[in-house]
Amino acid sequence: MMKLSRSLLSRNLSYEKRLFGEAGDVRDALCLHVFAFQSGISTATRDFSLNVASKGNSAARVYAPYTVYKGKAALSVAPILPSFTKLDSGTFRVERQGVMLLTIWPSIGERKYDWERRQRFALSATEVGSLISMGPTTSSEFFHDPSMLSSNAGQVRKSLKIKAFSDGTGYFISLGVANNILKSNEQFVVPITTAEFTVMKTACSFVLPHLMGWDRVTNQSEPVDIVGKLSKENSQLLDSEWDK
Amino acid sequence: MMKLSRSLLSRNLSYEKRLFGEAGDVRDALCLHVFAFQSGISTATRDFSLNVASKGNSAARVYAPYTVYKGKAALSVAPILPSFTKLDSGTFRVERQGVMLLTIWPSIGERKYDWERRQRFALSATEVGSLISMGPTTSSEFFHDPSMLSSNAGQVRKSLKIKAFSDGTGYFISLGVANNILKSNEQFVVPITTAEFTVMKTACSFVLPHLMGWDRVTNQSEPVDIVGKLSKENSQLLDSEWDK
Amino acid sequence: MMKLSRSLLSRNLSYEKRLFGEAGDVRDALCLHVFAFQSGISTATRDFSLNVASKGNSAARVYAPYTVYKGKAALSVAPILPSFTKLDSGTFRVERQGVMLLTIWPSIGERKYDWERRQRFALSATEVGSLISMGPTTSSEFFHDPSMLSSNAGQVRKSLKIKAFSDGTGYFISLGVANNILKSNEQFVVPITTAEFTVMKTACSFVLPHLMGWDRVTNQSEPVDIVGKLSKENSQLLDSEWDK
Amino acid sequence: MMKLSRSLLSRNLSYEKRLFGEAGDVRDALCLHVFAFQSGISTATRDFSLNVASKGNSAARVYAPYTVYKGKAALSVAPILPSFTKLDSGTFRVERQGVMLLTIWPSIGERKYDWERRQRFALSATEVGSLISMGPTTSSEFFHDPSMLSSNAGQVRKSLKIKAFSDGTGYFISLGVANNILKSNEQFVVPITTAEFTVMKTACSFVLPHLMGWDRVTNQSEPVDIVGKLSKENSQLLDSEWDK
Fold this sequence. Notes:
Four copies of one chain form a homotetramer.
Chain A: E1 2-3, H1 9-20, H2 29-37, E2 47-48, E3 62-63, E4 66-69, E5 73-80, E6 83-86, E7 91-96, E8 99-109, E9 112-113, E10 119-123, H3 125-132, E11 139-144, E12 156-164, E13 170-179, E14 184-193, H4 194-211, H5 214-218, H6 227-242
Helix pairs in contact in A: 3-4
């Protein structure tokens, strides 16, 4: 069982807060997913995304989570790319790291799932490294405190556990959220086959350099989107998503 | 031996039906392969493909299967990319998942193969994950019912088995199709060396994120083809392929 | 020790003949490498390359072999990409498979190597698969007959052997060319460390889908160069290389 | 423990000297990183970079190191891409190999690090191969002499050691610089978890073909930046970075 150092927690947690707001804000599942996938959207005024097409106003935002539906819950995995800040020198610096977003929501009947009760966990690049390095018999455990940098520190505690089956044919992925403020305690468990976990590991290995921004370092000849125009575009998109 | 849960079968099977029609429709091998590789062609009116060039009317469709010819049969592997739907918000959502298409057809003499008797098996992303995770001594087995969502459910049964040689120097890939309607029972077996299987695993690992659409998530600055124009292009192509 | 089936030999051998002519034709090392890397150059009139830039007349040909210099010989590895044929339907089909080109040439003194005595071996995609699947204690052996499809069949025999050190710290790569016509028998051996072999395996895994043309299948939105113009460009380049 | 042959040292060392000047020259951390990432900047007049955008004067330089902060020191890893020379024939040849740049700098208090005392180590492609091939119990050691090709040869000695924990849960990465001229001896040690090392290995595997220039061989349709204009651009950038 591997536990990650708490020195890395604060970054993930304030990130989740900033990106998703309070639990329950988003009514439409599609809105949430699209919002989550728009890397670069933040309250910082000089925040740029190098992930949106630069040709005029058309941006290609793509919604492609890998989702598995099981008896007790469903689990969805998708990358959220980093955002960049442009320095005066013209160089782009990573503003917000990319993450791998896990979402789990419970089953409420035969082939029916309750999206409203979803819980999320945003894996950092290093936590993704932990997942990639897992073998058929190892386990990993990650702890996040979404309120770590605020006055509510310690009130909400999220834990993600990936535990191998004893026979090596799969893993249990369980996400627990203990919320002292709401007096709630959610626990979701999803069994994952070796094949499904291989898909996740392979896709994570593919996307990890993108979460780190290294695809931008190696691909410097690609067009880069311009500031202000991008923020307005994303704002409009966001409004239209929220009104659905 | 690993058997995949039947909860994933229906999606693959209706997909194969929709893409390929009844067995025997396509007379020209090249037509079939090209048709198969045109991701995004479906009867849905708002079905888009993000895989076709956006510059004017020129689209770069590429035919590049990995094929091995053995004594009793030949086997061909090629990716079919996913298709996307454009939402009102401008976001693209995966409409139809990508698959890895396996085609096997029997030998009828020295260096002669009967393309007309080919059988196909479309591996989903998760089934590809199963293939990638195979070691030198493991085996996998997949079952598809192409008619699962129709009145003919249970009448046609496809099984793909990948079984390791006992000495670890290769695998048998066997595809069986039992058809109660046609009263036929085809069984093809192709021995694959470790080297050939490594090519398949490496190529599958490369293409898996593309089957999932994750290359589109990470590569948002690439041009995206526009709806209507795309459908007409593909229709014309399709007609010309069928008439050959 | 793995020996590849001879059924795959003919393709590689006529390919080497067509691409490189007789041993000794090329006087300038750079010429040879550049010629070798211009995928798509062949005597076929309708042979296209999808690897050359389509913007006007500027094509980005890149010369970037991975080379190691050892006491007795030097070894160089570089990919040669496939070439494509355009069908009437507008679809591109692989015309000539890509290969991984190994070149070995002997040392003739302290830090001096004799490029004129170089020997080449072009690994097919499947042979690259064999290399990628090698562990620290395995060995591989490949046999090519460059004259297999001609009247000189059996007169020239090339063998490439990759044999692990007994202590697992590296490999011997030896290339032997027995030529009954020239009455010559060249044998070159290069010791490769585990680190150097890891570079080759990693680079081979990266480039294998490109050798198969699968990067073209997944990247259909990239511009494609036009026929006639390409052939003339490459011809001019070739002449200028030969005259150096 | 693996020691690399000294025959490869000279290339790395003169490279580090040429790129970074004497220790202590750069006052601003960001300057150094940006300078380091501008592949292609050298004193050679005909040195080109294929890594800078070709559209007009806008170049997308991206600063995205993977950094871990530990108790005694911080460690940063980032790729520096190769630079290319354009031959008269129009072919591009690798001028300077790419490297993976490791930077370590010491802690001077709670969450405080002294950038001024940083030390760097530039891993060649082969040394990156060594890192990628490491298992949970192996170790690697590399030696560089930055002054090898000058009159100060032997006066400065850098060693980078990557040593696995005995329980297989991580590695110590230690960088030592013994400088006889300055009479100094710096030693930095950073403990790395298995997860963090997996991120480095995965990112290194991704970037290795780019360090070798093989992404340029496989991606020949991408635009290529023009000579003279590039050098002037980079010079201006460099001046502005140094004056910060």
